[in-house]
Amino acid sequence: MNIQDCIKFTNENPICYLATTENDQPRVRALGFWFADETGFYFQTSSVKEFPNQLLLNPKTEACFYHHEGMIGTMLRIAGSVEFCHDRELNEKAVNDRPFLKNFGITADSPKLVIFRIAHGEASFWTMENNLKPKEYIEF
């Protein structure tokens, strides 16, 4: 497995769970993942949510993606520190890719639009076949 496998898996399985901390308490929530490419794993949210501020205070995170197959499935965990993106072209892409944002009054210029990515870190796949084997990490 390599980073291209991770990119493909996340783009094909966009529902993920993202972990943060708040006052030393773990927090996790389901998210609709935005996209991945060679530059990172991208997420879009709103500043009215709690977790962007949690990530500002502690940028370390882990995202878990899952594809259900038969009785079990495949899981991909991606860990790293987030980088907040302040790029007009990315903002435009977010609004174009996610038209529902307009229903919330979010535009490419809106301060409510928050984009972040995990550009560097490690990833590991899990299946029942490798359940008891040592993890193999993919550095990116």
Number of helices: 3
Number of domains as seen in the coordinates? 1
The SSE order reads: HEEEEHEEHEE
Catalogue the unreliable spans.
none
Distance between the termini: 12 Å
> What is the architecture at the second tier of CATH?
Roll
Task: Count all strands and give the number.
Answer: 8
Biggest β-sheet, characterized?
A: 8 strands, antiparallel
CATH superfamily: Electron Transport, Fmn-binding Protein, Chain A
- Beta-strand percent range: over 45%
Per the CATH scheme, the topology name is: Pnp Oxidase, Chain A
* Rounded average pLDDT: 97
Helix content range = 10-25%
Pfam families: PNPOx_N (PF01243)
Protein name: Pyridoxamine 5'-phosphate oxidase-related FMN-binding protein
Structure at a glance:
By secondary structure, this protein is α+β, with helices and mostly antiparallel strands.
How does this structure look, described?
The protein has 140 residues and is an alpha+beta fold. 19% of the residues lie in helices and 47% in strands. It has three helices and eight strands. Strands 1, 2, 3, 4, 5, 6, 7 and 8 form an eight-stranded antiparallel beta sheet that branches. The model has no long low-confidence stretch (mean pLDDT 97). This is Pyridoxamine 5'-phosphate oxidase-related FMN-binding protein. Residues 8-119 form the Pyridoxamine 5'-phosphate oxidase N-terminal domain. InterPro entries: Pyridox_Oxase_N, Split_barrel_FMN-bd.
